[in-house]
Amino acid sequence: MNKRITAAAIRQYADVSKDTAAIHLNAEAAAKVGYKQPIAHGMYIMGLAQSMYLNEHPSQWISSYSMKFQKALLVDSIAIFDFEVCDSTIQVTITVESGEVIALGDFSVKERQ
After folding, report:
1. Structural domain span for residue 95
2. pLDDT digits (tens, 9 = 90+) for 41-77
3. CA 94 to chain CA mean position, Å
4. Across the chain, where does the E strand assignment appear?
C-alpha cells in the first residue's frame, strides 16, 4: 500500500499530538539538522501502518507492536507499506520509492471477539 506523506497531514498530526518540533514543520529547521525537507513523526508513521493494516483486516485488532526506524521519512515522499503475515504476527516494512527501508516492525494481532 502506498501513501503520500503530505505537509498538511504532518501539520494536523503535530497539532493533535502537540509535537510541534520544527524539524517536522519547517524546511529551514530541517535543513539545519541535515534533512532536505521536514520529516514525518515516527509515531504518525507507526499509527498509519496500523490503521492501514486494520482497514484491510477489520475482524482483527492489534495487541502489541514494535517498530524501529532506519531513516527519516521526508514530508511529500510516498511511503510504501508492506505487510507479511506470519501466524499471528504481521511483519511490516516501510520503504520509499527508491527502495530505501525507512522502518521495520511487527504487530501481534488477534481476532475480534
Report:
1. 2-111
2. 999 999 999 999 999 999 999 999 999 999 999 999 9
3. 7
4. 2-4, 60-69, 78-86, 89-96, 101-111
Torsion, Cα of 59, 65, 71, 72 (10° steps): 70
CA 83 and chain centroid, separation: 13
Tell me the HSE value of 63 on the side-chain side, using a 13 A CA sphere: 9
User: Which residue is listed with cell 508492506?
Assistant: 82
Q: Evaluate whether 40 touches 49 at the Cβ level (below 8 Å).
A: no
Residue whose C-alpha cell is 525507512: 102
Number of domains in the chain: 1
**Which residues sit opposite 111 in a β-bridge?**
60
The domain that holds 105 is classified in CATH as 3.10.129.10
Q: How far apart are CA 102 and CA 85, in angstroms?
A: 19
Percentage helix, strand, coil, to 5, in the chain? 30, 40, 30
Question: What DSSP character marks residue 100?
Answer: -
